[in-house]
Amino acid sequence: MRAMQLTINGKNSNFPSPLNLQDYLKKQNIDLEAIVVEINEKIIKKTEWPTTILQENDVVELIMFVGGG
Amino acid sequence: MDKPFIIAGKELKGRFLLGTGKFGSKEILRDTILQSGTQIVTVALRRIDLNLNEENILSYIPKGTILLTNTSGARNAKEAVRIARLAREAGYGNWIKIEVINDSKYLLPDNNETIKATEVLASEGFIILPYMHPDLYAARALVKAGAAAVMPLGSLIGSNLGLEMKMMIKILIDEIDEVPIIVDAGIGIPEHAKQAMELGADAVLVNTAVATATDPVKIAKAFAEAVITGRNNYLTKTADQSFMASASSPLTGYLHD
After folding, report:
1. pTM for the complete prediction?
2. CATH architecture of A2-64
3. B29/A67 Cβ within 8 A
4. What is the CATH number of domain B11-236?
């Protein structure tokens, strides 16, 4: 297993490679019900999470609903 | 008898829309939505803070409430389109309040970019309610682009100043028949909401004035009632304003003449 760098919500970190998106998300302390994932500005549909493998230098955005006017 | 309030073919019960920002707690937000009877609430999208373990706001919004996701944070049409597509992917509908702002002092909406974003998103099947500066040409362009409603600002966001744009909003109300006019931003007290409805607006959207009140539930109910009163006044209005006097008593003669 080697390390790769990912940018997740603006923060650079090292992760073991390969890393599956669904596995990564499940390890986070977040409600997966109402989130949206974007990788390199492309939306990753929920049905694609299990088959999406994160790649070196991917820019990942994890988005949720918040209060707003 | 009032005509039904319809946006994009959906008949709505109330004419009071609520923003969900700035509430002290999600429980208060939930109670405010329930007690005010609002059927449409705005929400926003943000990056998740992975260290915070934030609760999902949607679990506090009663089922059946229409989520109107705003594109806050968008500085141009492209960014607004991106946010709208993200919102739809989340699976909570396709109602979008386009909000394109690149002036951080006045938070005024950029009508040109808003029109561009409306064109793109309406063609993709979104239901678009654009927040806009009340300009007749822009409103017409938004309708042409496929907007489902037009939402002119009453005054600056969060200013609580009321209908500073009254004259221009009235022009939109008089000239735009195709879609509802919803006064958004600056409504600070129930009286302002009433005035907007008396002017002939189809609905109002309030956030700051409710969320930052000492008792949001109580004030939200007052806003909802003011909207109904204002609407009724509008529907029953018989008296036109004039700059000339019009006698309400007979003017001819004196007593028995």
Report:
1. 0.89
2. Roll (3.10)
3. yes
4. 3.20.20.70
